[in-house]
Amino acid sequence: MLEEIPAYEFASPSIRFGEGRAADLAEVVRQLGRSAWLVTGRRHDSPAVRTVVDVLAGAGVPVERIASAGGEPTVADVVAGLAAIAGRPLDGIVILAVGGGSAIDLAKAVAALSTNGLEEIGPSAGGSPDHERLDALVVDHLEGLGRAMPIRREPPPVVAVPTTAGTGAEATRNAVISCPQRRFKKSLRSPLLVPRVAVVDPSLSATCPRSVVAACGIDCITQLIESYVCRFRRPLTRAIVRDALPRAIVALPQAVRFAGEADVPPFVRQARAAMSHAAFCSGLALANSGLGLAHGVAAALGIECGVPHGVACGLMLPVAMEVNLPCAIDDFAELERLIDPSCTASAAEAASRFVLRVGNVCRDAGMPRGLAEVGLARDRLEWLAANSGGGSMRGNPVELSTARLADILAAHYR
User: Fold this and answer.
1) Is 193 within 8 Å of 173 (Cβ atoms)?
2) Angle CA(271)–CA(276)–CA(280) in degrees, nearest 5?
3) Cα dist. 332→95, 229, 280, 404 in Å?
4) 200: Cα separation from own chain's centroid
5) Distance separating alpha carbons of residues 23 and 5, to the nearest angstrom
6) What does the domain layout of the chain look like in residue ranges?
7) What angle do CA 24, 25, 31 make, to 5 degrees?
8) Of 320, 336, 339, 335, which is closest to residue 392 (Cα–Cα)?
């Protein structure tokens, strides 16, 4: 008997993958427009950014920086980006995101709002864009906040050039935006946010610091595992995970060990390529299925403690896998056997080995092992449980009440 395949949609950018593909960027931009507005992360003058700018300049493609994210993008970052382009024509413009997930999410948000409300906001009394109205524009389009306004009009094309290997933002249909002052982290979400093209050049990640390589790599692994077992999983995304996850488990230790080194042996370049491929695949998987407990709690931890997202995932992934093990035995066993084809253990034993394996990967990557270690006060456990809901938690295989989640978190407070 064939298993029924549920109806599904699948969103994806056009992909150009491989070492040296950054050289294609002038061609890509010219296929979509005439000039590029550049959005970067905090390393706005990194070797990767300089490579991209040099490629465009060498081909005579005008490029102008319009925004940068100092960390995970905030409402203020989006407002600044919108203020920089307010009143300017969008014809022929390509928005080029060069950086990690923060830069790419910021670019997607600025692009989406540039055609979905920015044109209706005039200048303030001083002649500059009205920042209060820009702030309201951003908040009103975030899910679960303001007026929950949808993205209806096509934004300028976004080309995503990831310089880290982990977030998969180059393939997703959302942009995660936070506001430390108002203590929220929410998504701007629409199929129109999927970048038009993703240019994934593993060599651009070569100068990333070790901490970034580790945290992004664990984020990638978390996304692959959670999308594989979540309630909204689909056959196509599971096939993608089966290809990408074993590569990432093997590659991450080598990528971390040689992080930031330029002159490396071929196997390190292969490891970087495997992580870049896995990161893109993790973005496809989460965008077209869902996530789970680890991401649900990680978002709230980021708000409460300022923990980098990948580090929070590295803390919560082993916890989530232990919680979900009873109803994910066959899935975890399958993933273990893909990593270790010689494994002949029972499904239960293979699944337990997989949980142990992933826990060791997190530990070896330097991830924290307890909530106290990331600065969470014990009296904030109930707050953390109450604020770890949202779309990610809805996808978790095991349904968890707030009280049950609080008990789980308390058991891992050390």
Assistant:
1) yes
2) 145
3) 40, 8, 22, 23
4) 14
5) 40
6) 14-205, 210-411
7) 95
8) 320
Distance CA 14, CA 18 (A): 14
Q: Which residues pair with 17 in a beta bridge?
A: 200
Q: Which residues have CB under 8 Å from 265's CB, separation 6+?
A: none
Phi, psi of 64 (to 5 degrees): -135, 130
CA-CA distance, 349 to 340, in Å (whole number)?
13
Which DSSP helix (H) or strand (E) runs through 185?
A: strand 184-189
Query: Do 67 and 107 meet the contact criterion of CB atoms below 8 Å apart?
Result: yes
For the domain with range 210-411, which CATH number is right: 2.60.120.200, 1.25.40.10, 1.20.1090.10, 1.10.443.10? 1.20.1090.10
Q: How many CB atoms lie within 10 A of CB 139?
A: 19
What is the residue-wise DSSP string for 257-318?
HTTT-SS--HHHHHHHHHHHHHHHHHHHHHHTS---HHHHHHHHHHHHH---HHHHHHHHHH
pLDDT mean by block of 10 residues, the chain; 414 residues: 80 96 97 98 90 97 95 95 95 97 97 94 72 94 87 97 96 94 90 97 95 97 98 93 98 96 94 98 95 95 93 97 97 98 96 98 96 95 91 91 96 90
Cα–Cα distance, 254 to 243 (Å, whole number):
19
What dihedral do alpha carbons 365, 370, 376, 377 form, nearest 10°?
-160
Beta strand pairing call for 158-162 and 174-179: unpaired
Burial of 130 (0-12, 13-18, 19+ CB in 10 A): middle
| Class of the domain covering 14-205 | alpha beta
**173 within 8 A of 287, measured Cβ to Cβ:** yes
- Could you say which DSSP state residue 187 is in? E
Helices (H) and strands (E) in the chain, counts: 15, 8
As a whole number of angstroms, the distance between CA 275 and CA 131 comes to 39
CB atoms near residue 122 (< 10 Å)? 10
How many other CB atoms are found less than 10 A from the CB of residue 341?
9
